[in-house]
Design goal:
By secondary structure, the chain is of the alpha/beta class. The protein has a single domain (7-165), classed as Rossmann fold. Helix content is 39%, strand content 14%. The protein has helices at residues 16-25, 59-71, 91-101, 118-125, 140-165, 184-193; strands spanning 7-12, 51-56, 78-82, 106-111, 131-135. A five-stranded parallel beta sheet has the order 2-1-3-4-5, sandwiched between helices. α3 links the parallel β3 (78-82) and β4 (106-111). α2 (59-71) runs parallel beside α3 (91-101). The radius of gyration is 25 Å and the shape is globular. The termini are far apart.
């Protein structure tokens, strides 16, 4: 399966205002959400990819969204998951459940400085490049840059798989260069054939 724009993005948070905030931040329009940092300038839409945003209010609902997306062969490119959601699973538990269904889903954990330690993450998931941490309160530009980078990463990861399934080579074949090998025995023969140097 390969993602094509718009990039499907899942927001899992128990606050409807956060859903609206992320939808605004990931819009292509010139934006400046009222709930973002007031000192930030409006952001240009030029060359910013399109995102299709779905929202869930807790981990279980988010898991159902991921399962449905996989069944429809329209997987999510990424998910933003809040650390604390009431009631139900916290962010760590939610991420574990999501990865059981979709192991290559890229996830951003939204949390404050006191929610957890990095050791908590490593102890649960090990070192992984599929998980990023977005510290709250966050800036609009932080979210947009993170989403853009994850969209590009998704393309790089999925483009070879899509080409392979279609029977095509994802990249042009590299030119083959032949290098003449020298065996150990021929090297010894060459050394033995050299004239001896006169000692002083």
């Amino acid at each position: 399966m390969s993602a094509t724009p718009p990039y499907r993005t899942l927001i899992i948070d128990d606050d409807a205002a956060v859903h609206q905030l992320f939808s605004s931040i990931l819009s292509q329009e010139l934006i400046h959400p009222a709930s973002s940092q007031p000192a930030e300038p409006a952001l240009p839409a030029a060359d910013f990819p399109r995102f299709e945003v779905d929202c869930a209010f807790d981990g279980r609902q988010g898991l159902e969204c991921v399962q449905k997306a996989l069944a429809e062969k329209r997987p999510y490119s990424m998910a933003f998951v809040d650390m604390w959601m009431k009631p139900g699973w916290n962010g760590i538990e939610t991420i574990g459940r999501l990865w059981l269904e979709c192991s290559d889903l890229q996830i951003v954990l939204c949390a404050s400085h006191t929610d957890f330690t990095w050791h908590d993450i490593v102890n649960r998931f090990g070192h992984t490049d599929r998980l990023l941490v977005l510290k709250k309160p966050f800036y609009v530009m932080d979210v947009r840059q993170m989403a853009y980078a994850l969209a590009e990463k998704w393309n790089l990861f999925n483009r070879p798989k899509a080409a392979s399934s279609a029977g095509k080579s994802p990249l042009p074949a590299a030119p083959q260069y032949r290098r003449k090998a020298t065996s150990l025995s021929s090297a010894k023969s060459w050394n033995n054939s050299r004239p001896a140097r006169n000692s002083a």
